[in-house]
What we know:
The complex is a heterodimer of chains A (503) and B (156).
Chain A (H helix, E strand, L loop, with lengths): L1 H4 L7 H19 L5 H8 L8 H25 L9 H48 L5 H18 L4 H16 L1 E2 L6 E2 L12 H19 L17 H10 L1 H16 L5 H15 L11 H13 L1 H4 L1 H6 L5 H11 L7 H6 L1 H32 L4 H20 L2 H19 L4 H27 L3 H6 L2 H23 L6 H5 L1
Antiparallel strand pairs in A: 1-2
Chain B lengths: L5 H26 L7 H23 L10 H24 L2 H16 L7 H25 L11
Amino acid sequence: MEFIYYFGDVFTPINFGLLLLGTIGGLILGATPGLSPTMAVALLIPFTFQLEAAQGLILLGAAYTSTVAGGAVSAILLKIPGAPANIATTLDGHAMAQKGEGAKALQLSFLSSAVGGVFGVLLLIFLTPVLAKWALAFGPSHLFWLAILGVTVIGTLDSKSVVKGLLSGCIGLWLATIGFDDIMGAQRFIFHPSLGGGINIIAALIGLFAIPQVITMFARGRRDDGAEVIEVQKHPIRGAFAEMMRNKRAVGIGTAVGSIIGLIPGVGGQIAGLVAYDQSKKFSPDRDKFGTGHPEGLIAAESANNAMVGPSLVPLLTLSIPGSPTAAVLLGGLLIHGIFPGTDLFDNHPDVAWTFINSMLIGQILMCIFGLYVAGLAAKVARVPQSVMAAIVLGLAVFGSYSVQSSMGDVYVMASLGVMMYFLERFGFSAAPLVLGLILGPIAESNFIQGSMIASATDGLAPYFLSGTLNIFLIAVVVASVLYSAYMELRTRRYTSMEEIIG
Amino acid sequence: MSDISLPRIQHIVGSGLVACVGAWVTYVSYTQQPSEAFLFPRLIATVFFVLALWTFIKACLGWTKVGNGVSVTQLSNLAPGLLVALVYIFWAAKGLGFYTATTIAFFILLSLYDPAPHTALKSWLKRIFITACFMVVMYGLFALLLKVYTPREIFF
Lengths: 503, 156
């Protein structure tokens, strides 16, 4: 119950102000089609440099939570999911809006997001310290395999092609080795002076997540997306509460599915929303009404995509394995303040860890309150034309990556990686495993070198890295995730694309 | 070659480039000294090269299932914007100063991709207004609030 001790820290004027700013800003950013939660959080990181670690994390955490919920606004009113996590929301949410129930759909969406979100953060509160203590038993070989596991799981489960997902992870791991070697001081792969200090993680995150989105907007050309905002009529909030109470099963299914999926590294909110929608439909007596503007589908999808936010941070805060691409960006936000997840975080910086986690709990409630009142406004603000959005994101990316170290080299690295990632994505590669490789690469390498030194003084390299219960378990999980994904890829295309959903 | 589609050619070229990078990384990892500094890169490079080669072979055989490549329309749409962005980032930002370069790049990009007609005076005034608002926000955020000292050579 250590978290209660730090609850008051959330309500200091600066911390609470940042929480409000992150929540309201996140709702508007989330409602803006084309601005994914990952990209929004990556673009926000440069603004956290001058803040204390806990303050920076509060801002990023609030933005993460509310961009996922805010994505429902454009899904319901524009039929354009603000984020992949809101794809399932479009199915019934937009149909409700078309029937004149837009306000009710928005209210149900924020209420169910809050219920799922609060449950997810409670899981984070109670699971994290237990797992963090367990992480104490990990030696260099285990930490090496954990880092590889993080890259492999996201590379296989988050990508449409197992081989290309793993290849993306390898590219990320290689990029992480660029620069001077920590032990020998040798130069590695420095083919341009900008790379002398290695690849700056923040510049890379901005480039990999923001620039491909900018180029995608360019590729659409001079066209009006033609989406019309459906006007929101007034609807009593009590009616939405009553509807929620009538759909307890959908809330339960969504929350349970989202929490479980959030705990599995690499399986994001998109899958959580779609699986919850599907399960809710299977168990519903009104399954024929799904897709025609039935509140049950909307409630299940929205409670699931917010319930996964908290649990997706459990592997990040305990084992340094981000559960989602946005969690990987949050890891970057932690590392720039010199804080490492795991026991270091909870033993040496408990104030940072618990203030951040508590702020996410309060953030869920604030998100619901503000969401209910600013959704209509957010939808109007969200109708920013693609041309303006592309130029804004490009400007923010350039200034943001420069401000990291006041270095033009970082801007060049950001742009080069961004352009490269756009074309790689067009060929089926994925940014998430590449980012994971880049972030976990130094952790994997330092533990590999440390393990190699221990191994040379004891049994040798192979027995040290390949024997022992925990090593074998971790290797088995790596192999299982690859085989499972390969099997699923051969069997069927697992993901429902946004185009298939929104027509 | 006439029956090979554009996406397939793009896949072959794209995966070929990735395989070339993989081969170069592997070569450097195994030949550079001190070899201890390249222990981990050797491990990564080997897997990187094998996977890249497999992807290239699949592309050559036409077995690639994922990724649609870039269509000619998309390429012609993105080319002007990308060119402006690259000139802005790799030359103008440092050469003209951040704020001047950003103002120019922002306005050009807005004009290139705004669906509003180029003949209407109102749409030009709107673009100028949006650019001015954006630059005021950027200056306020980065110069005044965060105190980021950006390259400034002309005007600012």
